[in-house]
Amino acid sequence: MVNRNYGKYAVPETLIKLIDLQKELEQRDLLPYGDLFGLYFSLDEVDQRYLNTPIDLITFARPGSDGIHFGFLTDFGLVEDLEESYIVRVSPMDFDDPVKIVARNLSDFFKLIYSYPASVEVLDMNSTEDDFKRAEANASDDPVSQEVRNIFKNAFNLEHIEDLLVYYKSLKEDRSEATALETGDGIGIASAISGSSSHPIMEVSRDQNLELNQVEEFFKAAPPEAKLKFLRDAQSFGLIFDNIDLKQYLQNQLELMNLNDEAARIM
């Protein structure tokens, strides 16, 4: 089940190292609740996903409340190495806006939780200036022991992130430049896959009842990036979770696009 979650990707060595460190610190009674900076890191199985978890997301950490989880965004297989993929937070109970990019890569994710513990649970590249100020102020109340912080810092050679606002502004600009199509969750579809300059779009809304024949008609003529936009929006809005016929059709379409990992996760 772990292999089905990761698909064609190798588990990042950095994540394996962190999981081993978390176990070691727990055995040394330095993590009284088992979490590291409020998060539990693990090699997740494919069935630990939620209805609005993006199908191109590989989960690896969670705070243990409200189903919130973090994962590697593969951008539908375009990412070559998960060490360099964007890190996304999914808040399943936040039905209006469940999916957010929170870090440029795994290394930055570690720097963020070291510099401002719990920041990745409340901040993202669309947060306001007041949000950043509150996160920086709350960091002074960090309950993690200094010994754990030093061990974590030395293990991964971490540097302190001085300004959260500057970091997330740069992150948002970088993602915007690499986005071919905007999506409802703000993540977007990375790079132009078909090279088409026009994108016939099938917009979806949260309360929409998707009809299979309508989706089939759209998929006949739509370029790949428009199909992926539909898939990302429909998944984020939870529109295909209990529609078995539609889900099976989309699984087949993903396979035709050689997106076999995503085809496995959509079910």
Describe this protein with a few key phrases:
2 domains, about 10% strand, alpha+beta, 11 helices, globular, about 270 residues, 7 strands, 5-stranded antiparallel sheet
Task: Record the SSE blueprint.
Blueprint: H1 2-6, H2 13-27, E1 40-41, E2 57-62, E3 69-73, E4 86-90, E5 99-103, H3 106-115, H4 119-122, H5 129-138, H6 146-156, H7 164-177, E6 179-181, E7 189-190, H8 212-221, H9 224-236, H10 244-256, H11 260-266
Antiparallel strand pairs: 1-2, 2-3, 3-4, 4-5, 6-7
Helix pairs in contact: 3-6, 8-10, 10-11
Walk me through the structure.
With 267 residues, the chain is of the alpha+beta class. The chain folds into 2 domains: 2-177, no CATH class; 181-266. The chain contains 11 helices and 7 strands. Strand 2 and strand 3 (69-73) form a beta hairpin. It is globular, with a radius of gyration of 19 Å. The relative contact order is 0.13. The mean pLDDT is 89.
